[in-house]
Amino acid sequence: MTVKPHMSKYAVIEGPFDDASFGIFPELKGRGYHYCEAPIFLYYGEHKSTHHGFGLYHIWEQRLRIEFNLSMKTAMPFLVGEIKTLLSRASIHCEFEHPGGNHRAVVIAHATCNTVVMQYLDRKHVCSIVTWFSRNFRKPKKPRIGSIAIDYGT
Fold first, then answer.
1. Rg for the chain (alpha carbons), in Å?
2. Could you give the CA distance from residue 90 to residue 52 in angstroms, rounded to a whole number?
3. Residue 147 pLDDT exceeds 70
4. What does each C-alpha distance from 14 to 4, 44, 95 come to in angstroms?
5. C-alpha atoms less than 13 angstroms from C-alpha of 154 in its C-beta half-sphere
6. Which of 84, 118, 124, 142 has its CA 20 to 30 A from that of 102?
């Protein structure tokens, strides 16, 4: 997919699987949380301000443009690679911060400590990648509730 200015915030950034996803988030249940099994998508997203937004555009504005000096054109393949590496072996933590119970999942890679934050979207029945942090930016403060290991065949 080519990134175009003014794309819809729910335009899917193509992942490695046939459905354009990055794989399946596992069903996880416990006291105070329930995540349904759902495909993981990276949307074009939007950036409203610091810590307010989601998707590729938010991650680019918040991190990749400034910290990594990447253009949007180079940011997309970089981020796709980083997400694949992270989701190939990571632990899942729960933020327990949403008053309505739709808590965000925090996925932290074992080897690199890179982090992806995801939100389950009830209406779409998918997990949306909200943001990405590089190398120890966010240490696991929240309880570990599971793990994820997606085989990308690379």
1. 14
2. 25
3. yes
4. 14, 10, 27
5. 9
6. 84
Nearest CA to 46 among 102, 8, 78?
Answer: 8
CA gap 32, 49 in Å, rounded: 29
**What token pair was written down for 3?**
């990134």
CB 75 within 8 A of CB 56: yes
- The average pLDDT across 2-25 equals 87
Residue 27 has phi, psi (to 5 degrees) of -70, 130
pLDDT, position 119: 87
pLDDT digits over 40-64, tens only? Answer: 999 999 988 887 899 999 999 988 9
Strands 33-35 and 115-121: unpaired
Tokens of 10: 């729910």
In the block, tokens 């909200």 appear at 130
CB 113 within 8 A of CB 135: yes
Q: What pTM value is reported for the model?
A: 0.88
Interval 65-107: pLDDT, tens: 988 999 989 999 999 999 999 999 998 988 776 555 556 788 8
Beta bridge partners of 91: 108, 147
